[in-house]
Amino acid sequence: MMKNIAIVGAGLSGASAARVLRDEGYDGRLWILGEETHRPYDRPSLSKSVLSGADEMPPELAEPTWYDDNQVELVSGTKVSAFDLRGRKLELASGWSIDVDGVLLATGARARRLDVPGSQLDGVHYLRTMDDSLAMRTSLKPGMSVVIVGGGLIGCEVASTARKLGAEVTILETADELLLRVMGPMVGAGCRGLLEAMGVRVLLGAKAASFLGTSRVEAVMTQANERVSADLVLVSIGAEPDVTLAAAAGLACERGIVVDGAGLTSVSGVFAAGDAAAWPLRGGGRRSFETYLNAQAQSATAARAMLGCVAREPQVPLSWTEIAGRRMQMIGDLAGPGTVVVRGDPSAGSHTVFRIDGDRVAAAVSVDAARDFVAARRLVEMAAMVSADALRDVNTDLRGLTRATRGA
Amino acid sequence: MAFVRVCSEDEVAPGEALRTESAAGPVALFNVDGEFFAIEDTCSHGQWSLSDGYLTGDQIECTLHMAKFCVRTGKACSLPATKAVKVFPVQRQGCDVLIDFEDGHFAA
């Protein structure tokens, strides 16, 4: 039985795991060690309501009194500089050390850096933390030119927010469509249409070659030698699991800390969850999921496993976003083998796109169709056998299907 | 005490929900295996209707960001929600289901 558990990382994973540990009756010492100076907060709003100023601050992940009430020792603004696996000791940059018998590494992911001439100029931003969001919010002004390098989820979310604030927004995306990895070409094209209708300029197949300016960024040069004026640049070209501590300690890492379906790393007593972890996928392989809901589920699974309740749970990516005022939810990878089936009329707004692989529902993306998504999600989770015609027919009761259908 | 008839019990099947407007705002009525519970319909996190959600046992999962609430107590059971929603007293009279919309409160 563990008596001294430290959670390294105070994001969603760390905070969720602490909550589950206490809810499940763990009564030993419990630390959350966070590098940021803030109490754990919710990140999805950083690209939306916090950036726009609609919310002053992101919501906190627990009431401020929760930590004391539950004997959780939250240590903020602290970097863990080393993890001695053999001695079961965490060394903090402040000079402290903590003796532990269980560790959950929830160190998250960092924004992938773009290393081109001029990338150190003022006005070039990244977005992962509250401080990043507040710094961008201070600079964002109506009428200014904003260039977003990378048309993935964060890029498209920020484009929506900045455009609504009255900025002139250009997205540079190297691929031939926005949001390809997460949404597939069809929904990606739909989002591009919505963003363009808002007045966002989208350049596909466009790579940032350099940033121009003397001290502050003034423009972005593309590889095709197009000069795009920029008062502010956001680089949103993906994230990389933060494995610095884990790799230095000697844990197996492979684009994330390698864990099994219960979150256990290559060393007993040491677990990882959330964006830092390369977690098994239900369909095989493993990766960092970079989603809110998977981070939450992984942390709960890992926390229970730390208490001896081990259930291996490979996962299916599950996520949501808000782009150009549309609420979208997705499960599984829409880009993959099989057939794409559309339910509803994309041009009318509300619709759901499914991918069927063989005869099983493998992935779904809903646009302004939260009610359908509840069922779509279950169908994907069950890998249900449903015909393309049934999915396509808007008269099919999807909820009924989830009750009637049994997956493999 | 002002219980108001909302529906008859066979209008809300087990596992299903009914959204109803009231002076206290929208209220969601849930049928958990024949037992009825009423809570505020608006998710305390994302301003979304809980009655659209997915009921598993006595937990309702919001369709928007998948926060979960206990329909018996209104308590938040899963992030991103951290704040409870109010519960409303429910009564059965014969086949009718009644809610006291004036007594919405946070469970102890």
From TrEMBL, chain A:
InterPro entries: FAD-oxidoreductase/Apoptosis, FAD/NAD-bd_sf, FAD/NAD-binding_dom, FAD/NAD-linked_Rdtase_dimer_sf, Reductase_C. SUPFAM superfamilies: FAD/NAD(P)-binding domain, FAD/NAD-linked reductases, dimerisation (C-terminal) domain. The keyword Flavoprotein applies. Residues 4-298 form the FAD/NAD(P)-binding domain. Its cofactor is FAD. GO terms for molecular function: oxidoreductase activity, acting on NAD(P)H. It comes from the Bacteria. Residues 320-401 form the Reductase C-terminal domain. One of its GO terms (cellular component) is cytoplasm. Coiled coil: none annotated. Keywords: FAD, Flavoprotein, Oxidoreductase. This is Pyridine nucleotide-disulfide oxidoreductase. It comes from Parvibaculum sedimenti. The lineage of its organism: Bacteria, Pseudomonadati, Pseudomonadota, Alphaproteobacteria, Hyphomicrobiales.
Automatic annotation (TrEMBL), chain B:
The keyword Transcription does not apply. GO terms for molecular function: 2 iron, 2 sulfur cluster binding; 3-phenylpropionate dioxygenase activity; metal ion binding. Keywords: 2Fe-2S, Dioxygenase, Iron, Iron-sulfur, Metal-binding, Oxidoreductase. PROSITE patterns: RIESKE (PS51296). Gene3D superfamilies: Rieske [2Fe-2S] iron-sulphur domain (2.102.10.10). InterPro entries: Rieske_2Fe-2S (IPR017941), Rieske_2Fe-2S_sf (IPR036922). The keyword Aminoacyl-tRNA synthetase does not apply. Residues 4-99 form the Rieske domain. Its EC number is 1.14.12.19. This is Bifunctional 3-phenylpropionate/cinnamic acid dioxygenase ferredoxin subunit. It comes from Parvibaculum sedimenti. The lineage of its organism: Bacteria, Pseudomonadati, Pseudomonadota, Alphaproteobacteria, Hyphomicrobiales.
